[in-house]
Amino acid sequence: MQMKIENGHVLDPGNMDGIRDIWIHDGRIAAVTEPGECRDRADEIFDATGLVVTPGLIDMHVHLREPGQEYKETIETGCRAAVRGGFTAVCCMPNTRPVNDHAGVTAWIIAQAKKAGLARVYPVAAISRGLEGSQLNEYADLKSAGAIALSDDGMPVNSGQMMRRAMEYAKAFDLFLISHCEDLSLVAGGVMNEGETATRLGLGGIPNISEYLMVQREIGLAEWTGSRIHIAHVSTRESVQAIREAKARGVQVTAETAPHYFSLTDEAVGRYNTAAKMNPPLRSEADRRAIIDGLADGTLDCIATDHAPHASMEKNVPFDEAPNGIIGLETSLGLSLKLVHDGFLSLKDLIRVMSKNPARILGFTNDLTPGALADLTLMDTAAFWEVDPSAFASLSRNTPFGGWQLHGQAVATIVEGRVVFRK
Amino acid sequence: MHFTQKDILDMASLSAEEITHILDTAQGMKEISLRPVKKVPTLRGKTLILFFHEASTRTKTSFDIAGKRLSADVIALAKSGSSMAKGESLLDTVKTLEAMHPDVVVMRHGTSGAAQYIAGHLKSPVINAGDGKHAHPTQALLDMMTIRERKGRLAGLKVAIIGDIAHSRVARSNMEGLIRMGAEVRVAGPPTMIPKGVEEVYGVKVFSAVEGALEGADVVMMLRIQKERMENILFASEREYARTFGLSTGRLALAHPDALVLHPGPMNRGVEITDEVADGHHSVILDQVENGVALRMALFYLLAGGMRHADED
Ligand SMILES: [Zn+2]
């Protein structure tokens, strides 16, 4: 079975940038040729004229809710949302029920994902038993079961000692930590960004310093232990600056941000709009601009969604009581392409932060070169479309972007040579 | 003037004209409370529900009396009541309330935005009797009524609001309302109690020392210190608070000689206000309580009463 993707603009930063035909055989890339150069027979021809063909997009930070909260999302529906959004792989966070702090859970997640047969799923296992921040998990077991990284996402590791030991211990198994940075004593019951909107609404504020202080701690610990640290969902200008400085002096730190942090500010909370409630919270315009600058200059390595499905009844409550989080898999590419259309990032840089860098951080290559696994995203960067949450593949609808006009979207997603989504 | 607001949720959604109309109406209601028979039939047959999800004897009693003076049936629901059991969602509460066909729902809730949430799901008018740290419009209106009664105006007055601005819905509603009516508002308190961006959001002037805010003030509004906030490390001790931020006779002398002193109650005597000031001739604290009933009668009348004069049968 041979497949030919013809006439696409093949954009693989560092390897290729031009109109090419891609030949796929047995799930791998067989050849990349000049258009029409090779006249071999293809069983299936995909006309990619006018489309951009890139290495598959990877979302390093999603919540799939299974096991435990299948009414919000299952591994299958989450993967369906992923491939519709152009993602060939996602990393799922461990705050499921039960928590992914045990090799059995890790293996089960991978088996479920295989059964779904859509996007690749790389489980992130918990740093500590039950996300409680007090006891190390069996990293060796978790690694051999398929865990790709460790995180207590959502539950910041409060103890510096615990974080230090986790970093040191993870090194033995060539695993790295992903830190959700939040000093809870400074959050102090806050529910949105500390600023003018919170003051007007009488809502408890979460100050920038609650994130920045923990980012500083993680950088310090990574430097001290000689470990690698990945900072999850960066939202403040101070964090961006701290990461920029740490990178400049050689600390092994990488970082991600999410589309909502460069698309919205805390004004989106408006009059208690719970669709704009997330953690970390939407920040100020100065923070939003700093996030974009951080992506443009490489301080922030990747865009991840922090896709966090919640049922509508859970969000239809007063703001204080609503759970944190929004879904993001099906809007991420469209929102991120706005950075390209607005001239903040080149398309090549966008592919880097959505595809190449996540792969590098996770420890594999993601190239459109012969012999590589055929994970590809085909996108129409010019298409205008309106976000319609009711049409999402995700089981949940909690997004503040309903009704937004976006410019560009995925039209096909190919995982290991199989078309898993086609518009 | 034709009053068209469905709900009274906060001061920000009322125009200066509407505020004036409410205050004028309340002034007319005040006389009813001075009659030997303190009752008019205006709202006979109407049902008012007081839903207090948070304890407050004073405000609840004031609404209760106001409703009864207009002959309405006033039903009080407490959180501990059977249908409002713990764990019930606010949406379920709304549905329960709707089924009772109330003509006005008065709600107090510990969550900011709760009144707006209820109003968005309920056909009947909603009066916010305090939601979290967000708004307490009837308190602000009765404060404004009290000030206007004594000073004859609101525009141009210098009003100092002193204490825990950050956690006070009374302060938020007064800042919004008084600025809307043309007053100059200054706030003061320990920096731990001044919320971020308060100058930009409301157009007030912030003083770190109480003295600066008091200088030449026509009105001094003291806020209640929540003693339980001690645990929240907002101030060191009641003693130091009283000495540094409390209103004493000496400090009050900085204000205009005819300055009014207000307090939403209940007072922590000796903490935010001394006995001498609370009971002194500048104090209009009891006027506030009296006006509270008239103001709430006015709101019931405007939201549920139709267009008849209060004395018509
Ligand atoms: Zn997180």
From TrEMBL, chain A:
In terms of InterPro entries, this protein maps to: DHOase, DHOase/Allantoinase_Hydrolase, DHOase_cat, Dihydroorotase_CS, Metal-dep_hydrolase_composite, Metal_Hydrolase
Can you state which reaction this protein catalyses? Answer: (S)-dihydroorotate + H2O = N-carbamoyl-L-aspartate + H(+)
**Cross-referenced Pfam families:** DHOase
What UniProt keywords apply to this chain's record, in alphabetical order? Hydrolase, Metal-binding, Pyrimidine biosynthesis, Zinc
* Record EC number: 3.5.2.3
Q: Which cofactor does it need?
A: Zn(2+)
Kindly give the CDD domains that the UniProt entry links to this protein: DHOase_IIa (cd01317)
Positions that bind Zn(2+) 2: 153, 180, 233
- On the tree of life, the source organism's domain of life is Bacteria
Tell me which residues make up the Dihydroorotase catalytic domain: 51-239
Identify the pathway: Pyrimidine metabolism; UMP biosynthesis via de novo pathway; (S)-dihydroorotate from bicarbonate: step 3/3
- Fetch the Gene3D superfamilies from UniProt: Metal-dependent hydrolases, Urease, subunit C, domain 1
Q: How is the cofactor bound?
A: Binds 2 Zn(2+) ions per subunit.
Identify the catalytic residues: 306
Q: Which residues take part in binding substrate? A: 63-65, 95, 279, 310
Q: Where, in this chain's numbering, is Zn(2+) 1 bound? A: 61, 63, 153, 306
The record's comment on protein family reads:
Belongs to the metallo-dependent hydrolases superfamily. DHOase family. Class I DHOase subfamily.
Q: Which HAMAP family match?
A: PyrC_classI_B
Described purpose of this protein according to its UniProt entry: Catalyzes the reversible cyclization of carbamoyl aspartate to dihydroorotate.
The name this protein goes by in its record:
Dihydroorotase
Write the gene name.
pyrC
Automatic annotation (TrEMBL), chain B:
Enzyme type, top EC level: transferase
Q: Which named protein is this?
A: Aspartate carbamoyltransferase
Q: What is its EC number?
A: 2.1.3.2
The pathway that the record names for this protein is: Pyrimidine metabolism; UMP biosynthesis via de novo pathway; (S)-dihydroorotate from bicarbonate: step 2/3
Q: Where is the Aspartate/ornithine carbamoyltransferase carbamoyl-P binding domain?
A: 6-149
Concerning NCBIfam families, the annotation shows: asp_carb_tr (TIGR00670), PRK00856.1 (NF002032)
Residues that, per the record, bind L-aspartate: 86, 169, 224
Name of encoding gene = pyrB
